[in-house]
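Workshop exercise sheet. Pairs work together: one partner reads the sequence aloud, the other fills in the structure field after running the prediction. Swap roles for the next sheet.
Pair: D.N. / O.F.
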Amino acid sequence: MTEFIRLLEKSRIDYTENEPMKNHTSFKTGGPAAAFVSAKDEAELVKIIETAKSLSLKPFILGNGSNLLVSDDGIKERPVIHIGKGFDYIKDIDECTIEVGAGTNLSVLCKYALSKELTGLEFAYGIPGSCGGAAVMNAGAYGGEMKDVLVRCNHIDSNGNKGSFSKEELNLSYRHSVYSDSDYVITSLVLKLKKGKKEDIEEKMRDLIGRRKDKQPLEYPSAGSVFKRPEGYFAGALIEQSGLKGKRIGGAMVSEKHAGFIINYDNATTTDILELISFCQNTVKEKFGVELETEIKVIE
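Structure field:
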């Protein structure tokens, strides 16, 4: 990592050493990143990726950190590239088509669509995270998903080349896209929405955010739903039926409000959370014969 940092300095790219990842994850856990760099724009992002490639380093790409668990030991062997302010923008392509930077907060995009009286994104209001992260995992809720509105994603590949994938090429499925298993870095998304009535859009957004507040433990650090929905079941229901609501390991707890959420209840470590995840998986497997697969990404 020393050589990577030297090359960043040579290129006059700002970076931070030993950056606490707990400051960049919604779980508020995680050890230090040996090298942490926020790309100011696409040109700088290309330079950073090329630098990592020249040293055979595979960077970890970070958005809002809302679907992420970082080891208590941190990220030592690979640089962390943050897709932040340089990729936080929204611009109109035509009356119903929007391009949005990958670093833009998803709820900010939803409010922008509301201001333009565009419908189709209401489902995403209140989903934590960046637009880039939402595209990578085809985020969804309340009967909608990114697949419904995405037209194209623009990206940079591991060699620093710019490109894009059309909707058909994105291979969008439940919590998955072509980006889920690749080294491509999304820089922006193009979305196609529909004209609607502002009062109807606003009412739906208000309804959905109200449901989230009623049913989800938003007052505690978490990463949203921990597990993917098993076919024919609901993960939260299986965990609740296993008697695990309120189950604690260290400072981590299965939410008493929604069993599909694990929360940082009392200064939890990543290890606490991972042990509780494993405990839930083993218990549900034993009681119901169902394998729970995590929705969150674990970086160890």
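Discussion prompt: The radius of gyration is 20 Å. What would you look at next?
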